[in-house]
Amino acid sequence: MEDKKLEIFEVGPCESAYQMGFLIGKRFSDTIKSRLHTDLVLRNELLPFAQSPQSHPLIEALCNNNKTRFPIYWDELVGTAEGSGVPILEIVLINFRKEILPFLQKEVPSSVDCSDDCSDLLLVSDNMAIAAHNEDANNALVGHTYLVKGKLQNGLSFLAYTYAGELPSCAFGFNDHGLAFTLNSVPPTNDEIAAGAIGRNFISRDLLESTSLENAIFRIRSAEVSVGHSYNLIDVQTRRIVNVETASRYRFSVSEVGATPFFHANMYTHLQINQVQDPNSISRQKRANDLPKESKNDFLSVLGDMDNKKYPIYMTGKY
């Protein structure tokens, strides 16, 4: 797909979550279909696995548990599928890809590298508060993202950078309560993952409706997650930034960001669990530690750094 201007869609208030999802799906139907058609992880890994009998208990558990925990967002997901005119199974698979892939890989070695290599650099000092994020994800997402500006019946508005076909937002977003967030994937080992538990996309969708920093933390830690995640929460009203790392079995750790620049790649930094040692993240962390971080321009330079040819901080869509 050729590069094009990022589109924004204003939607709501709607009569139901299903209607909101339907309108988003209808508006971006071509983009969603194109993403699903070109996503090699979906075509080569997830769909073949979904046709196998051993996949059915896992997928059914994910659907049932997330529908029970977040029925409104489940309706929104179903609406997105029906509005875009694509099979609900494909929408389910891309929204639960991180919760499914570890179990798929036990059966078949993955032939597609689907790393998400986003990096964040955060700081809160007396004279400067910065949350900087670069968005390096799967190559199938190039040209397949959009902005959703949603308004809910209770009057809350949010803006979410959205991967085509997925719930807003598994990348970053903010709302008119002054609460913003960015996300980093993290790699727990397979023995740290709870099969069929709550998906990260549903938790980040819930974050868009947070009323405060404390409320956002509550929403994160109260869900029984499957694989875990890293959340960078920004409260504009109180001028605070915290990093929250989560894992299955309700494990979480909160780290307040202060005057020392805090860099987060795609590994756990303060929650103590078994994790895959990712040479990409280790390299990015080391490089970020070596670079100056005194000004806003320095922060942008760090997240745009390509000095390491194999593992640059800014991947530019390698995958």
From TrEMBL:
Residue ranges of every copy of the Peptidase C45 hydrolase domain listed in the record: 126-316
Pfam families in alphabetical order: AAT (PF03417)
InterPro entries assigned: C45_proenzyme-like, Peptidase_C45, Peptidase_C45_hydrolase
Gene3D superfamilies: Penicillin V Acylase, Chain A
Record PANTHER family: BETA-ALANYL-DOPAMINE_CARCININE HYDROLASE (PTHR34180:SF1), PEPTIDASE C45 (PTHR34180)
Protein name stated in the entry: Peptidase C45 hydrolase domain-containing protein
